[in-house]
């Protein structure tokens, strides 16, 4: 568990399963800039609660993983959750106002949660009918994937990606 202070001055306790997926918090803890809590001046409590919900759903306990088809778009499937169920959950989860989705994208970028960033950018691209690369340019988001990573993911998730009108990469 780790405590954070949001933009609206709310103190929230973040479960370890979520901390493990947030590279920014991991880096912060390693350098221990502040003993008590981490200030998140860019993220509201409402947005952070969405981030926590996503990370809890996508948390993988390696000791409890059952083999499923292929995992979700950017993170492995949670224990006993099929790819289709996780994909449906992601779609329902991301069914929100554009402004909320924008804040979620910014939070995912700030906290460096690659899986959430990718699925939320894809959702925004679908909403705006633009390619994810165009959305990244608009919101000044750098892709964390190299060209080799993209090719590997395209091959691995081609069947799942074929349902989208917009290119994933």
TrEMBL record:
Enumerate the spans annotated as SKP1 component dimerisation domain. 115-158
Q: Which SUPFAM superfamilies match?
A: POZ domain, Skp1 dimerisation domain-like
| InterPro entries for the chain | SKP1, SKP1-like, SKP1-like_dim_sf, SKP1/BTB/POZ_sf, Skp1_comp_dimer, Skp1_comp_POZ
Q: Which GO terms describe its biological process?
A: jasmonic acid mediated signaling pathway; protein ubiquitination; ubiquitin-dependent protein catabolic process
SKP1 component POZ domain residues are 1-60
Do you know which SMART domains this protein is assigned to? Skp1
* Metabolic or biological pathway: Protein modification; protein ubiquitination
Note whether Flavoprotein occurs among the keywords: no
Alphabetic keyword roster: Ubl conjugation pathway
Question: What exactly does this protein do?
Answer: Involved in ubiquitination and subsequent proteasomal degradation of target proteins. Together with CUL1, RBX1 and a F-box protein, it forms a SCF E3 ubiquitin ligase complex. The functional specificity of this complex depends on the type of F-box protein. In the SCF complex, it serves as an adapter that links the F-box protein to CUL1.
Subunit record text: Part of a SCF (SKP1-cullin-F-box) protein ligase complex.
Similarity comment = Belongs to the SKP1 family.
Q: What is this protein called?
A: SKP1-like protein
Source organism per entry reads Carex littledalei
Taxonomic lineage of this organism? Eukaryota, Viridiplantae, Streptophyta, Embryophyta, Tracheophyta
């Amino acid at each position: 568990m780790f405590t954070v202070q949001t933009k609206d001055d709310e103190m929230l306790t973040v479960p370890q399963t979520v901390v493990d997926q947030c590279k920014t918090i991991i880096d912060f803890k390693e350098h221990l800039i502040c003993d008590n809590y981490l200030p998140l001046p860019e993220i509201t409590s409402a947005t952070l609660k969405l981030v926590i919900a996503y990370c809890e759903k996508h948390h993988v306990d390696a000791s409890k993983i059952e083999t499923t088809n292929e995992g979700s778009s950017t993170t492995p499937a949670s224990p006993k959750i099929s790819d289709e169920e996780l994909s449906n959950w992601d779609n329902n989860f991301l069914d929100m106002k554009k402004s909320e989705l924008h804040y979620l994208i910014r939070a995912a970028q700030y906290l460096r949660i690659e899986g959430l960033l990718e699925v939320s950018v894809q959702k925004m691209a679908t909403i705006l009918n633009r390619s994810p690369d165009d959305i990244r340019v608009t919101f000044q988001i750098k892709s964390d994937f190299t060209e080799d990573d993209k090719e590997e993911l395209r091959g691995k998730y081609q069947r799942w990606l074929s349902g989208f009108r917009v290119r994933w990469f």
